Amino acid sequence: MLGTGSPAPGETGEGMVSHALALLQDSAPGRRGHWAAIALLALLAWLALEQLSAQLWFLPAGLRLALLWLVPTRRWGWLAAAEIGAQATKSLVLGYALFSTTFLAVCVAPWLIYAAVVYVFRGPEPAPAFDSPTRMIVFLLAGLLAAAGVSPLLWLFLVTVPMSMADSLVSVFAFLYGDLIGQIVAAPLLMAGLHGLLHSRRHPGLWRDLGLVLVGALAVFMLLQAYGGLAAYVLLLAFAPLFFLGFRHGWEGAAIGTAALGAVIQILVQGGLVTVSVTMLQLVLSVVGAGALVLGAASTALRLSHEALAQRHQELAAKNEELGTLAGELRLISQRLVRIEEQGQRELANELDYELGHAIHALGTRISLAFRDVRDEQGTRFLESLREQVREIQDSLRRALRQLRPPMLDSHGLRRALDGGPLREMLDDAGISFETGFGGPVDGLDDDARTTTYRICQALVREAVRLETVRRFGLQLHVGEAEAEGRPVDLRIELEFSPYAPHLPPLQPLPAVRDRVLSEHGRYTVEPMVHGQRHVVRFHAGD
């Protein structure tokens, strides 16, 4: 949210900078007093930078481009008033006429050209900081085109000496390079300062690296002072370290380095300590400076992406930890539900055995006693059929009770319950061959793991019986030695289908098995076989 008040007393420098940027980018109506103060500051800054300008650069061009890039379109009138007022002040001091074509062409038209180019490239709203090389390239291209549009106009009205075509082009390029160097030196530095990106904690080691770069540049220029003929070979070495600053410290470091190196060059030029032509210095500084800014913007984008990725990793780590906690709680809940289910089935089996089993047994006893009182053949046959139906009911009840909770699982252990219990009977009745293999202390598993293993096998046996295409059911159970996480349990069940089956069932896990495996925090996979499928379950059982 944009600030609407003055900075609080004792506010930090970073907060004041952010407040100043928010004020510059505020497009809400009103606040004319604030903008009048901003226009006055811009006027004074323009005059100060104009005094620092020389043959190497025209620094107000950088101020103009930076303010146009930062300020919304509806506030551009204040910027125009500030620059035109500064130009008028300069003209009055120098004794130039204000109401003339030259004043309009030299002092008013350049701002309009810059504003038109920036509006085309940026739009009506302020642009954000340079978080990608594309934004930096657009910014530099806008400055280049604006300078290219202004330089012929300045040459036309400021150069009054007759020149040849070649000299005219040289003069036009001199105006172009002056504006371009002013943009590269002043605009990125001003924008970095207003965005609060020049704090030392954001760029550790920046001033040390900047000092090394400037010392290296001075060494090269001193070498050229002594041996001017080496310019074609070593001049670029004075500017190349700007790429290092851009790569190491982002576009902010490149902006500081370009401005500092430009200041050093200007001091050396004014002192007559540089034998290289100013045009050559302008050309190399503009090319290398622009390249360093683009490289710095790419480095900044990479750093921001790394920071965002690190923050995302922290968030994901927190979410994973939270999910792990929830998974542990869900596992406990699932285990409790499984225990409740097993307890319910055990109690149901006991109740059925007590209520129905005894009643059916008593009914069979009474039918057997009734044989003594019946003498005719028809009654005997009727009682015989009743007794046979009672036996079938007893057998069905016994199988149902075994499905609910086989007594063999509690009395003889898991191995006997799987090898010779109700599951084998179900497969034998369906005509499916049953093969088993056991390894390790199978009967040493705790009650939860024993029940889970049996129920998984029971669910797969029911699936095999339901499919009607299974001809072999292979069970391999291996229990490892106790570890820190518990005893590793490896259960492999192979369902081999008939080779004459017209359609094979899909290769997908069974929900009943998956729920049991999840309650033990294990893994459940289904693997294809030749005319079959293999169900693999792995989990750790508690001691």
From TrEMBL:
Coiled coil: none annotated. Residues 39-301 form the MASE1 domain. It is a multi-pass membrane protein. Its main location: membrane. It is found in: Cell membrane. GO terms for cellular component: plasma membrane. The chain crosses the membrane at residues 33-49, 56-73, 93-117, 137-158, 170-194, 230-247, 254-274, 280-302. Pfam families: MASE1. It comes from the Bacteria. InterPro entries: MASE1 (IPR007895). Keywords: Cell membrane, Membrane, Transmembrane, Transmembrane helix. This is MASE1 domain-containing protein. It comes from Arenimonas terrae.
